[in-house]
DNA sequence: ACAAAAGTGTTCCGGATACACCCATGG
DNA sequence: CCATGGGTGTATCCGGAACACTTTTGT
């Protein structure tokens, strides 16, 4: 069996990141326009290869950082894709990750440099290789996650209004939610701090800003509280 | 960027299978006793390496077949594990799969030959490398799956009693279920065929046998029916 | 006749949903 | 003073949970 190690075929291990952002209205993904062959000029996910000295999570971090300048981003492994000819250049296995980022914080210059652009899910162009499937899987994973835990605080700025939070949920779940029911549920979770501050940009009256209370959330989660919206 | 292909490090890609079975009482997993170094004599999952001419699903199939003699088994990719020193011999990434098999159908001789043995989840020994974590993840995935679709018909013989089905659910979910509520729910799903046959082994009265109706299930699933138990 | 498991319905409660009006403010 | 979005509570409904007795039959 030891021989099996040496006798076995090594492969290139790629990573691809589905990067989600939320621009106060819609869920978006960040795509790059390839300026190299194969598939030059087509849109794709940002990707890279695993290096010897890092594990997959670290590689995903590095790749995400390269494009956005962001560190300590929410990243989760999605699935591994291995169709033999998925990459026409060489046999590669790709491990897909998805990231949730605050769309206001990424480094504009960097993403310009990579020819990257934000697309709303519905208007995203067709992607190279098997990237379309990856995106589809990522969305359904995000939707699932939403049904199990209060998701999306990574996608919002630190201070946000209830309206924004609701729009985020609506755009992840692809359905309209009732304002009162939504607020009741969120309040029942008791994981937000209502600030004295108001966001005056959206109306004359202004709407209160909230912050996510990470500690409270952690405690509730440990107690097995159900955060379903 | 093309250079990146050649400049990047290739790695060994391993697969490990968590094989679930159900022996009418308990959920079990199939483990093998290693008869080679490293970690000779310790228990582990069955594993293998990806070959050039196959994708991951095919490799998992092949590995499972090698141990159990079974084909066309329910197999699902779980997660990829990549800690740098997870395998002391050489850097390997492992993609874990889990399988659901009918415990009565596997090839006894084959598994003896590999020094494999069924363990109930609670009594399983500690495993090599990161295999314990894989098993933990697999169980929680199975539990999740159970909450979304009628699971476990792969784990049961073609004909089974309601009692058996209930025990299976109980052992996956780790909780006692109410007999009447369980039967009502399963019947409401309307995906079983009640046979005229009875299983007389468990009682004097005998209990009716049921079969899973794959076609009905597929149709209901397509209609978005909710199979939560 | 009795032991042992199979089989069968109804009530009750809580959480989810549907729904409409007043408030505060800047122009 | 009015237009705009912000904020709030209640009645109803449905599905899940709790619950106990009768039936069958081999010994």
TrEMBL record, chains A, B:
SUPFAM superfamilies: Nudix (SSF55811), Winged helix' DNA-binding domain (SSF46785). InterPro entries: NUDIX_hydrolase-like_dom_sf (IPR015797), NUDIX_hydrolase_dom (IPR000086), WH-like_DNA-bd_sf (IPR036388), WH_DNA-bd_sf (IPR036390), WHD_NrtR (IPR054105). PROSITE patterns: NUDIX (PS51462). It comes from Christiangramia oceanisediminis. It comes from the Bacteria. Residues 12-145 form the Nudix hydrolase domain. PANTHER family: ADP-RIBOSE PYROPHOSPHATASE (PTHR43736), SLR1690 PROTEIN (PTHR43736:SF4). This is NUDIX hydrolase. The lineage of its organism: Bacteria, Pseudomonadati, Bacteroidota, Flavobacteriia, Flavobacteriales. Keywords: Hydrolase. GO terms for molecular function: hydrolase activity. Transmembrane segments: none annotated.
